[in-house]
Design goal:
This protein is of the alpha+beta class. 35% of the residues lie in helices and 21% in strands. A 4-stranded antiparallel β-sheet has the order 2-8-5-6, covered by helices on one side. A 4-stranded antiparallel β-sheet has the order 11-18-14-16. Strands 4-3-7 form a 3-stranded mixed β-sheet, with no helix packed on it. Helix 3 packs antiparallel against helix 9. The protein starts with 5 loop residues before the first strand and ends in a 9-residue tail after the last helix. 27% of the residues are buried.
Amino acid sequence: MKKGWEVKKLGDILKLEYGKPLPDDKRNPNGKYPVYGANGEIDRSDDYYHNKQSIIVGRKGSAGEINLTEKRFWPLDVTYFVTFDDKKYSLGFLYDLLLTLNLPKLAKGVKPGINRNEVYEIRASIPPLPEQKRIVAILDKAFAAISTAKANAEKNLQNARELFESYFQGVFANPGDGWEVKKLGEVCDFFNGKAHEKCIDEKGNYIVVNSKFISSDGRIWKKTKKQLFPLFRGDIVMVMSDVPNGKALMKSFLVDVDTVYTLNQRICAIRSNSFDNTFLRYQLNRNKYFLAFDNGENQTNLRKNDILNCPLLIPSLSEQRAIVAKLDALSAETKKLEAIYQQKRADLDELKESVLQKAFSGELPIDN
């Protein structure tokens, strides 16, 4: 341990004070002051309970979650707020320190909560106040650079998504010469799935195509020994029911193999000889015609006739395949960037954790 640093219990450094209930009639979404719950700011009020910037620690709910407050705020009774002697300790230093301690691991009970006495027993190495402030300055600079790097990576990903979406929307907003427009029911066959809830079996040979399967792009599934509605290569399956503003409504999945899948109820299958199957899937997936049935208030349940009346554009097969090639290439590039972005986020989070650990073990260099 570096010279001048001391090992202390948190209870000798800070106190966790209980928050207070806030009556509903004192809540105001446009109020001057933030109201903090266990997972950060959740409301506003024109009243405040504490008038010094502090740290909020989730007591119940998101137990152990750490948030930095504004100067005047109201901490709810599901939180602790931190008090300490600011002549000895830096607010920023204590905030960064608490982030390294993984307080959520202390949560216990059916409705998990943390006991402040257990927090008080945690030991930490504490430098003198000037060193605390130096560490905070270095961390602030490092974290700002990390945030910028994350933002740049996200911007690159967003640009790729926008390029794909721009081309995609352009294809269907500007039909080519000679393209036909027909209703889905005129050029496709429609099938409803069947209920599999009573025959789910993890040892089964068949994957049940349900809403979860489609919305997760086939990553999450249940199995069954009974193939109540067989699906075949080239079938397009879509989710017919979803919650208000749901992201699964009429999301689609293109079946790629025979004899593996079976269709669940409230999922439909579409088959057609008039389309390249991938082109049809691109056109049907989350089609604006279908999404217009969602009023944002009630669960949306599309009926067979609603789906059969969906207007479809029909270019020649050669045009369909050319469009698919372009969309597939853009989609592959977007997925590549998504993978890079996710890895970069993980690397930057790991870097942030490494910098924090070095800071609180006294290993940060003297120069920034």
